[in-house]
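Researcher: We plan to redesign the surface later, but first we want a full-length starting point. Tokens attached.
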């Protein structure tokens, strides 16, 4: 989805206020939604009240407050910069906020607004993007850089590199046809600017694999799908494996497909590698042919988000220490008979939208509770039912586990075999992320990945 159309130069301003509430008033004034008496105060009060439950502070000096209101367009964005820092107080903790990204979302977008929040948060969680908006610069340069992050700014050098990339892409198309591939996977993290694809490729799909980048709009560049991945390592093949998994969950690809991967060094803006992958051979040890990867009732975007959070935990741990945890997502009615609480449920009593894993502000909360013994139990649509749950499931016949995997993995394998669910385990010792379905396991390990380089 191209969000750049909702950016306007007159809604990117230098904030005069040093207080969070006053900054919201400044941003609301340029949004032109204050037609009703007291509407501005009502919006500010609602945002401030939500801050008491779940913070909109993303870290690195960036806050992303939002509110849903009946407006005449899907979204209104307003961005304010405070060069000297903004007093952002939440639960008694002071934040030095430099950028406030205010979003007003139409109430008609009930189903999509969490996806939009996640898309914007992804942009402002990238360290290169953070550096771009926080460096010392004029408000005009700041405005240009904001537009650059949303894919609306191009340089002459980018245009030259696009010519080379388009030439290579045509060669990738020839290779894909010769090897009978059904799709070309284009790795978006290679790009620092937009890749223009002017011609439509017949009889083959173009799939964009995006990693912490939003420089390409699939609708304007003839892409059939965009797949956001959170790689489990910096390896291109690891990213491809993650993208294939997500594509399988969405039904974009199936086990009989071959795909052509079009990749290069991250941020180089030049594609240098073409590889062909046979999905059936790659995943033959994990799942059988003609089998749906995703379970009935599990939303693909919820599973994707869980995998991303699991990847974060595996890489970052908690407070510098490795952490192991287990997520179980699926049909709650069938999962509950095999679980019992180990601790008081920390998610009990909160609104469903506030405890949905698609809410970008939930990630830190989940990571904070990841050190609790027991599993996270997640409904198929992403709503967290509980944390710290003991899994009491046994599998018959007994599932053979590889050496080195402990009780957490055994529990994940067992409950995936007896309930309508998928389990995701993070190993504390190896930091490996493992997915379990029907008692079968899939390791996200680049060492197990095979491809044919061309």
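Model: Full-length starting sequence:
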């Amino acid at each position: 989805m191209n969000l750049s159309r909702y950016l306007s130069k007159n809604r990117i301003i230098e904030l005069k206020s040093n207080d969070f509430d006053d900054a919201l008033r400044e941003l609301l004034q340029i949004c032109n939604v204050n037609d009703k008496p007291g509407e501005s105060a009502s919006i500010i009060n609602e945002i401030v009240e939500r801050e008491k439950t779940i913070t909109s502070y993303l870290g690195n000096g960036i806050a992303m407050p939002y509110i849903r209101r009946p407006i005449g367009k899907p979204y209104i964005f307003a961005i304010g910069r405070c060069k000297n820092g903004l007093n952002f107080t939440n639960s008694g903790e002071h934040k030095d906020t430099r950028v406030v990204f205010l979003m007003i979302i139409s109430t008609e977008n009930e189903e999509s607004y969490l996806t939009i929040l996640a898309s914007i948060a992804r942009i402002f969680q990238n360290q290169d993007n953070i550096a771009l908006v926080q460096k010392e610069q004029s408000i005009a340069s700041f405005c240009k850089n904001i537009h650059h992050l949303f894919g609306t700014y191009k340089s002459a050098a980018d245009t030259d590199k696009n010519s080379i990339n388009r030439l290579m892409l045509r060669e990738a198309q020839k290779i894909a046809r010769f090897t009978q591939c059904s799709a070309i996977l284009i790795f978006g993290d290679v790009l620092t600017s937009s890749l223009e694809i002017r011609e439509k490729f017949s009889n083959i799909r173009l799939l964009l694999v995006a990693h912490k980048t939003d420089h390409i709009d699939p609708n304007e560049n003839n892409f059939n799908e965009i797949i956001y991945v959170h790689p489990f390592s910096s390896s291109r093949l690891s990213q491809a494996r993650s993208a294939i998994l997500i594509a399988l969950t969405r039904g974009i690809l199936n086990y009989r497909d071959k795909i052509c991967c079009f990749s290069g060094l991250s941020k180089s803006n030049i594609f240098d590698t073409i590889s062909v992958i046979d999905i059936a051979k790659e995943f033959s040890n994990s799942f059988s042919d003609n089998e749906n990867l995703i379970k009935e009732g599990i939303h693909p975007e919820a599973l994707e988000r869980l995998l991303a959070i699991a990847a974060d935990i595996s890489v970052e741990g908690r407070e510098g220490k490795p952490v192991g945890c287990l997520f179980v997502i699926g049909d709650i009615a069938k999962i509950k008979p095999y679980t019992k609480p180990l601790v008081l449920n920390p998610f009990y009593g909160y609104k469903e939208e506030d405890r949905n894993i698609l809410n970008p502000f939930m990630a830190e909360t989940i990571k904070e509770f990841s050190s609790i013994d027991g599993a996270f139990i997640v409904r198929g649509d992403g709503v967290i039912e509980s944390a710290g749950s003991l899994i009491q499931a046994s599998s018959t016949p007994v599932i053979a586990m590889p050496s080195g995997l402990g009780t957490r993995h055994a529990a994940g394998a067992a409950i995936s075999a007896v309930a309508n669910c998928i389990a995701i385990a993070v190993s504390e010792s190896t930091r490996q992320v493992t997915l379990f379905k029907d008692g079968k396991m899939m390791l996200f390990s680049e060492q197990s990945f095979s491809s044919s380089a061309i």
